[in-house]
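Example record

The entry below shows one chain as it appears in the dataset: sequence first, then structure tokens.
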Amino acid sequence: MEHDWEKYLACMDELKRRTQIVREALGPYWTGQPLSVPDVELACLQLRKMYELVVFAALAAHKPRYRELRKRFEKDWKLPEIVRTIQRINPGFLPVAFEDVDGNITELEDRRFTPEKIIRWHAEFGEILHAFNPYRSVPDYKAIADACGAHIDRFTQTLSRHKVNVIKDEVFYLVTMHSKTDGSIQVATFYRTDGELIKKQRSA
């Protein structure tokens, strides 16, 4: 059961940093002020990278598989292919929000990232980042900013407290992105051994 929770935590820390960049880029949007096109494009770039991080995070924590696939992924930039490969290894690798009521963990299915959604959203932001043909109509940057705001909300709702399977049927993490004490990321690692769950608590 070789895994690396610190690598997963590092990916989550980068996601927090990129979330802040998006919020700063969209600062005028939140207050109803005009937005500059470069700021909207910066937000789109960060969101595209954030979806890539979500995909790689669980694999980064799964040491044996990461070592096996790393060289291939260094050359493979097509996210759909990467997602399908990881999905074959670990079908439940994407995070899902959870609730903890008296120690009973409930996954919130409406706040689950799925391979299909990740691939679609990643592609949509890629389209926005290309230069537009001058003979096409001007993009609706207000609508794009609206989409960016919705995606940031989705990241917050799903990742704030989430569960992710790292090694199928053996290891999963429960992650809190902002602890109540100091705002750090906390990772609780659960090992399933002979039907029994063993928990270890870690933090940034």
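Notes for this example: The chain is about 50% helix and 20% strand. The chain has a mean pLDDT of 86.
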